[in-house]
Design goal:
By secondary structure, the chain is of the alpha/beta class. It has 24 helices and 16 strands. The structure holds ligand C2E and magnesium ion (2 copies). The site of one magnesium ion has 4 residues, from loops.
């Protein structure tokens, strides 16, 4: 809470308390005044009765010669003065205001005035005079008694005392109510304030600290590490294809996944550090290190825990995340520096096909800068049609005939030289150019194939690679049908190659896309099979036409018996699922022979033909049957 708010709240609380106490005290004063008045009235009325009685007694004593005339006069004077006091004194107003008092006092005063001469002339032996006076006095004695007993000290007084007692009780209750409601209000304010503070520093979806809080946490951790000569690791975690998941499966699934990820990260780092969500699918884990090796181990552990299958309402999903790590003090000493380096390392992990986990290395920043420049150049290249497609033939291994061609992207930039297609795709995906690039590749491939069809090679098919982002965004079928319409190509001659990890996002969304594509009459090939995480049961559910065995297995065929039995298994699996198998990366005649003996139907590789420009491919097609002799 900021100090202004705190001071204002304190002033409000003090004012509230003070005015409550003031109002309570005022009520008490009223009560006190009323009870004092009641007491005064009671006292005055009993004093009056006492004076009347004493005057009466003095008359009796005079008749009995136990008191003299002076005593009687003194009592008379005292009685008169009492009546006068009651009639005139300001403090006796409450007495006069009592019902029946004023008329009694008036007539009593008149009577006393009338008695004055008789009292002063009274002698002890004037028995008749004394008796007459006593008889006249008895009327007032009765009146004074009545007022005293029935009126002042009777029901009326008790009622008044009851009222004041009730008033006192009500005031106490009122004060308690006020203080309670004030306390409640304060509590609500403080609670609201705490909640606002929580919201300002936490991410609502996962409950993790947000970016702002992360910097505070990080600065504290850095101060502590500096003081204790400690070491820290900053792990930047970013989910792969999260945007595509969100777009194709809906935000609810995306939210569910993010919550699960946050729980896994928190559980994995445990007491060794803290987790924050920086936004979107970006998380950061700060780890206290006993030794620098712990950083790499933790990054691996985080990666493993994230890649476990997540159960979602519509199925399950095997998320993959890239993790970039930077170290304090080795790579930087400020939160911004360490985060930026971890981010750069993560960027590398994301764009290398080899690893999901990457430690920051000096020099990476320059390479990243290159990528950013590359993105600008790529945009221009797409606009100015500077990209090219190479085609690599895929052969029927048993007779050496070309079955299809795979379209492979090529870009030779004047400033950057030749850039690998994987890097082009990565840059495009990172800088929002993926769709334009995919449109370009698809339409160029289809247009070229249409030309070859028109040239008489109408049996030829084209394989087009589709990146995960494009496959997951749900609009692929629409794009493909538009391109087919534009180019007039027969759908059955188009094969889309989807990498294994993409198609195994085992959810209704990816299945829908695949089925839509199949409905259009398009064939689907699972590319780089064996490098992802597919299970056989997944394969059974997906409507695929072809499997492409990854070149790493083909490369190992000659040396690793395990690779042989794996390829054998893949081939028989594909047969049983009615899929054709293509072997990628055939570089030696031994590999080719082995694949053929294992029953692999299709093959592609440098041994057979390298990827080549359109003209060369056209020449190759023209050579017609020559391929048979090259392979045999
Ligand atoms: P991929 O789809 O698995 O394509 C096969 C890659 O293996 C090609 O690399 C090809 O040149 C290479 N290759 C073919 N025969 C051999 C061989 O005998 N030995 C070895 N070592 N390599 C061989 P390239 O053209 O560099 O493409 C790399 C990857 O880039 C492709 O792998 C594909 O995933 C991606 N890619 C290429 N063009 C496109 C495109 O237009 N769109 C998308 N989304 N991805 C593309
Ligand atoms: Mg491919
Ligand atoms: Mg491949």
């Amino acid at each position: 809470m900021n100090s202004f708010k705190l001071i204002s709240l304190t002033i409000i609380a003090l004012l509230f308390g003070a005015s409550s106490l003031y109002s309570y005290n005022r009520d008490l004063e009223v009560v006190r005044y009323v009870s004092a008045t009641v007491k005064a009235v009671g006292w005055a009325s009993s004093e009056l009765e006492k004076e009347v009685l004493q005057f009466d007694q003095s008359l009796t004593a005079l008749a009995a010669h136990t008191a003299d005339e002076d005593h009687v006069r003194l009592r008379f004077e005292l009685l008169w003065s009492r009546v006068n006091t009651l009639l005139q004194g300001k403090e006796n107003r409450p007495v006069r205001e009592q019902p029946g008092v004023m008329p009694m006092l008036d007539s009593f005063a008149r009577q006393l005035e009338g008695w004055e001469d008789r009292v002063y002339a009274l002698r002890a032996d004037d028995r008749a005079g004394i008796l007459a006076l006593r008889q006249e006095l008895s009327h007032f004695r009765k009146l004074a008694r009545e007022i005293n007993v029935d009126n002042f000290s009777g029901n009326h007084i008790w009622r008044q005392l009851d009222v004041t007692e009730n008033l006192r009780l009500h005031s106490s209750l009122y004060l308690a109510g006020l203080l309670l409601s004030g306390g409640l209000m304060l509590w609500l304010l403080v609670r609201e304030n705490r909640r606002n503070r929580y919201l300002a520093y936490h991410d609502m979806l996962t409950g993790l600290p947000n970016r702002m809080f992360f910097y505070q946490m990080m600065n504290q951790a850095l101060n502590r590490a500096q003081r204790d000569k400690g070491q820290l690791a900053v792990h930047m975690v970013d989910l792969n294809s999260f945007k595509a998941i969100n777009d194709s499966l809906g935000h609810e699934v995306g939210d569910c996944l993010l919550r699960e990820i946050s729980v896994r990260l928190r559980d994995t780092i445990g007491a060794d550090g803290q987790v924050a969500r920086l936004g979107g699918d970006e998380f950061v884990v700060v780890q206290r290190l006993a030794s620098p090796e712990d950083a790499g181990l933790m990054a691996e552990r985080l990666s493993r825990s994230l890649s476990r299958e997540v159960q979602l309402p519509d199925g399950c999903l095997s998320p993959q995340a890239c993790i970039g790590t930077s170290l304090y003090p080795e790579h930087g000493t400020t939160a911004t520096e360490l985060l930026s380096h971890a981010d750069t390392a993560m960027y590398y992990a994301k764009h290398s096909r080899k690893t999901m986990v990457q430690m920051f290395e000096p020099g990476m920043d320059e390479r990243r800068l290159r990528r950013q420049k590359l993105a600008v150049a790529l945009q221009v290249a797409i606009e100015q049609d500077q990209l090219a497609l190479y085609f690599q033939p895929i052969y029927r291994l048993h007779n050496g005939a070309i079955e299809s061609v795979e379209a492979l992207l090529r870009w030779h930039s004047r400033d950057f030289g030749t850039i690998s297609p994987l890097e082009i795709i990565a840059v495009a995906e990172q800088h929002g150019l993926a769709h334009r690039l995919n449109d370009w590749v698809l339409s160029q491939s289809c247009r070229q194939l249409h030309r070859w069809h028109q040239a008489g090679y109408d049996w030829l098919k084209v394989n087009v690679n589709i990146s995960p982002t494009i496959f997951m965004d749900g609009a692929l079928a629409h794009t493909v049908s538009r391109v087919l319409l534009d180019t007039g190509l027969d759908a059955s001659t188009l094969v889309l190659e989807i990498t294994e990890d993409t198609s195994l996002w085992d959810t209704a969304g990816s299945l829908d896309t695949l089925q839509e594509l199949r409905k259009l009459g398009i064939q689907i090939a699972l590319d780089d099979f064996g490098t992802g995480y597919s299970s056989f049961s997944h394969l059974r559910q997906l409507p695929l036409n072809k499997l492409k065995i990854d070149k790493s297995f083909v490369a190992d065929l000659a040396t690793d018996p395990k690779a042989v039995s794996l390829v054998k298994t893949i081939i028989s699996l594909a047969e049983s699922l009615d899929m054709k198998v293509t072997a990628e990366g055939i570089e030696s005649p031994e590999q080719q022979a082995q694949l053929q003996s294992l029953g692999c139907e299709l093959g592609q590789g440098y041994l057979l033909a390298r990827p080549m420009p359109v003209e060369d491919m056209s020449d190759l097609l023209q050579q017609g049957k020559h391929q048979h002799t090259r392979i045999a």
